[in-house]
Amino acid sequence: MSSAAPRTTGQDPLWSVDEHLEDILATVRPLDPIELQLLDAQGCVLVDDVTVPVSLPPFDNSSMDGYAVRVADVAGVSEEFPAVLEVVGDVAAGQSDLLHVGPGQAARIMTGAPLPPGAETVVPVEWTDGGLGEGPVRGMTARSLAPEGAAGQVCVYRPAEARAHVRAEGSDVKAGERALEAGTVLGPPQIALLAAIGRGSVRVRPRPRVVVLSTGSELVQPGEELGSGQIYDSNSFALTAAARDAGALAYRVGAVADDAETLRSTVEDQLIRADLLVTTGGVSVGAYDVVKEALSHVGDADEAGSGIEFRKLAMQPGKPQGFGSIGPDHTPLLALPGNPVSSYVSFELFARPAIRTLMGLQDVHRPRTTATLAADRALSSPKGRRQFLRGAYDDGVVSPVGGAGSHLVAALAHADALIVVPEDVESVEPGAEVEVVLLG
Amino acid sequence: MSSAAPRTTGQDPLWSVDEHLEDILATVRPLDPIELQLLDAQGCVLVDDVTVPVSLPPFDNSSMDGYAVRVADVAGVSEEFPAVLEVVGDVAAGQSDLLHVGPGQAARIMTGAPLPPGAETVVPVEWTDGGLGEGPVRGMTARSLAPEGAAGQVCVYRPAEARAHVRAEGSDVKAGERALEAGTVLGPPQIALLAAIGRGSVRVRPRPRVVVLSTGSELVQPGEELGSGQIYDSNSFALTAAARDAGALAYRVGAVADDAETLRSTVEDQLIRADLLVTTGGVSVGAYDVVKEALSHVGDADEAGSGIEFRKLAMQPGKPQGFGSIGPDHTPLLALPGNPVSSYVSFELFARPAIRTLMGLQDVHRPRTTATLAADRALSSPKGRRQFLRGAYDDGVVSPVGGAGSHLVAALAHADALIVVPEDVESVEPGAEVEVVLLG
């Protein structure tokens, strides 16, 4: 699974952040496409090019409420010398049996209605007397109140050129043209186009189902009473929310006690609904770090490609990490550390790109930028580790929020960026340019 | 309802875009708060300040896997001259009955476990022989495999200062401090903090329920057969997706035929599940524009504050617009025009800010910026109208996509911005600076 031999220090081998991410993205594959109803496909990635089956609009139609007439009949007219035409009836939108408009005739026509045979142009109702004989009108009276508007005579006060106020068949898109390209993310305007060309469903990569479970015998569900030595489970909530935010359908399993057998059976139970599993805690060097112990034996051990590898990364926070695949379907699993800030930062760096790769997105990473560091004093960072500090970014300037401690969840809640301090930098002075990950 | 008298032209009075938006935002009020489970509150706005009930962490605890010891017992030690301490047992995370660490003693301690009484500092396991007597180790063996690790002796090779590797009670947040301010939008890190301080549920403004219905006898459901004079309904799909994108729970009712009685009863049926109703089509000057006709009589006509007002705006696309409130609860309703581009642009300008106001968000508008126009020829715009052209924005430059026609849904699907041409501008040259609405 490893892309390269890790750097070694005096003690443990250390992998770089980039090596770990590369291994994850080399393993995770976009999900198989499925056909989804249009609105269920919102936010998903189109798998095939979509071709226009029928031109849009499918027929010449009026862009105004008015009268469909022949050009010659309204040539040179004015308010003083109007054309007086015989109204042969209404053409409403959606009407299929069309009138014929002959010389000296007009059909009252509604926006979107097909241009009837014989008619060459449309004059807006505001250029006519609307059949009332009292000069220009502002609109038509509702047909239910004045059915006589569909008959009688109409005075036209202004001329119109051929095909004025007519939307030509195919003027939006023509049959056979490509409407959307494979790889397009379906937002509201793309859904509008797919509906407009008649697509009720579409083949996309589905949203990945992500199961989040935290581990730790000290964890209590928020809202319950806190006992001695206990803390509230926040990771399973934070990462479920973050997985949704990344585009996944996320399931929070909640906290599992530090018992290898319980953890193993919980993970096996969850495989059925998981395209990706994310655990927190139990990946370090302690005697009760059961995630390591449990996950080397999940699923069929004889299956090639299965197994979780635990590593130390040259990173702070987030040094201990696990990644691999488990079970008969080789479901990918990320075992993140348990400190709240470590797990959140690890999720942003590794789980979010994995989720977005499963979705088939091209752009799997958070945007990055450079910013000027605004701080009271220099930031210090351990040698040989890439540090990710919480920051508040505004218009090219970033300020650290809280300290480097991986338990500082309050500061995390007031940050909107991660300040990246590279491995070979031990101190960053105020005013220096730093790389920043924008958390959106 | 009007904030100001509209500008009048030779024909109809025209309201400005800003006047119409102002009237909408003056009418729409944030929804009443409800208590939601933490994960159901994701993306919602917090109603009250949240205070920390119990300090975080709630007790002094270890930040490492290692041994809890007394400072004097490890002072001056080295690999050559280690301290040899008696291991009195394990302190695991979540453990409530704590050992006492006396002089010459050590408790094996796990990350997150409470610092036991008597202990003053923590030495990481990597600074010890882990009880194995063979020099520095990389970690502990799982307790299930080596229970003897909780007893025997341990050699400590490096000294530690008082409270090294100890996270102090309250070092994250202290009881009584404000964790989050009213008005905060709850993203993953804020949910992390709320969980961490024990909040299982939280009072927020709920996501508004938005009912979208399109009108038009010409409309056919995508996926069905298109008859003569018919087109596919795209507006109800596009605006349902756009309402979700704005943060709403959206319900697509689909296309209603141009019959006032059907429309009226459909709208009345939907009131029960709507915080906002959005219709498309039927708002212009045609004889079949039934939205106008129907919606002046919805709900209790005697109720003050109810009623829909139909206007013409100095805007292209999107001239005809309706807005007001209907039914016993004065549910706000936006009646948007029916052309696909008109309805989408109107939604962006009027419905999206209304939805975000219902959510209690401070920032209800799409971001705007200025950009340099990249185009082959000048853009023309009708005098006295604010025009919104579809554009593609990239790094300070915007290019028009497709023409100005309000039926051009294919171009809309390839745009990510609206180019704003003010009322008093009739032509914009290539290279000019233009205002741009970024569609996200």
TrEMBL record, chains A, B:
Pathway: Cofactor biosynthesis; molybdopterin biosynthesis. Gene3D superfamilies: MoaB/Mog-like domain, MoeA, C-terminal, domain IV, Molybdopterin biosynthesis moea protein, domain 2, Molybdopterin biosynthesis moea protein, domain 3. Keywords: Magnesium, Metal-binding, Molybdenum, Molybdenum cofactor biosynthesis, Transferase. Transmembrane segments: none annotated. It is an enzyme of class 2 (transferase). Its cofactor is Mg(2+). It catalyses: adenylyl-molybdopterin + molybdate = Mo-molybdopterin + AMP + H(+). Its EC number is 2.10.1.1. InterPro entries: MoaB/Mog-like_dom_sf, MoaB/Mog_dom, MoeA-like, MoeA_C_domain_IV, MoeA_C_domain_IV_sf, MoeA_linker/N, MoeA_linker/N_sf. Residues 211-357 form the MoaB/Mog domain. CDD domains: MoeA. It comes from the Bacteria. Coiled coil: none annotated. Belongs to the MoeA family. Catalyzes the insertion of molybdate into adenylated molybdopterin with the concomitant release of AMP. This is Molybdopterin molybdenumtransferase. It comes from Streptomyces actuosus.
